[in-house]
Amino acid sequence: MRKRIGLLGGTFDPVHFGHLRSAIEVRERLQLDELRLIPSARPPHREVPGASADQRLAMVQLAVGKGGGLQVDDRELCREKPSYTLDTLESLRAELGSEVALFMVLGWDAFCGLPSWHRWQELLGLAHIVVLQRPDYDVDVPEVLKDLLAARSVDDPQRLANVSAGHVFCLSQTPLAISATHIRGLVASGASPRFLLPDAVLDYIETKGLYRP
Ligand code: ATP
């Protein structure tokens, strides 16, 4: 069977259980060989993160730990240019070859913003897209993505196994209304975000004094 690798890119400012639980469920549901979390160095779509790239990477590494079935891929942090997802997928393809099935995992909010991404129409030539529900976001899907869903979405994940890229699959994972924005807001106001993210990540935030006003 062709190798299958899932990719969850994000700012991870900080990483939380909404990311981690979704990642595990995608990996199991799609029977992936690996699921890599890919912290973004210079997010092109948003404000400067509250934690540095190194700190966000450290938090993702702490969250993933050893042996939990998730990996960390730091390729976007090693690049000088803005971290466009297309560049990341091209670099993965160059390394892994054309036979491996790649699954780019996006929350619903990120998926709805896809038309603003650099050369977004080319992404499906390099990977499948897996869309996660996001219970804390009520975003309307743009018309152009309705067309994409009509043309490219599949209901049966087995169909994704036959090709290395090109389909969209909407996955109903356990809905967790957790966001990094909410966690940063809690810390800034002196409230506890405990149980929304791993203890090791919270300890790191407290030790480094992150997200305080
Ligand atoms: P912020 O609140 O700072 O925007 P975030 O919580 O959305 O951050 P990101 O690092 O921006 O986290 O998200 C990375 C990816 O994970 C995106 O595709 C996003 O949609 C998805 N994601 C984040 N949180 C969840 C969640 N609770 N459930 C499902 N997907 C999520």
TrEMBL record:
Metabolic or biological pathway, per its Swiss-Prot or TrEMBL entry: Cofactor biosynthesis; NAD(+) biosynthesis; deamido-NAD(+) from nicotinate D-ribonucleotide: step 1/1
Domain Cytidyltransferase-like: 7-184
Catalysed reactions listed for this entry: nicotinate beta-D-ribonucleotide + ATP + H(+) = deamido-NAD(+) + diphosphate
The keyword Nucleus appears for this protein: no
EC number: 2.7.7.18
Enzyme class: transferase
Function: Catalyzes the reversible adenylation of nicotinate mononucleotide (NaMN) to nicotinic acid adenine dinucleotide (NaAD).
Official protein name in the record: Probable nicotinate-nucleotide adenylyltransferase
Organism: Pseudomonas neustonica
Lineage of origin: Bacteria, Pseudomonadati, Pseudomonadota, Gammaproteobacteria, Pseudomonadales
Gene that produces this protein: nadD
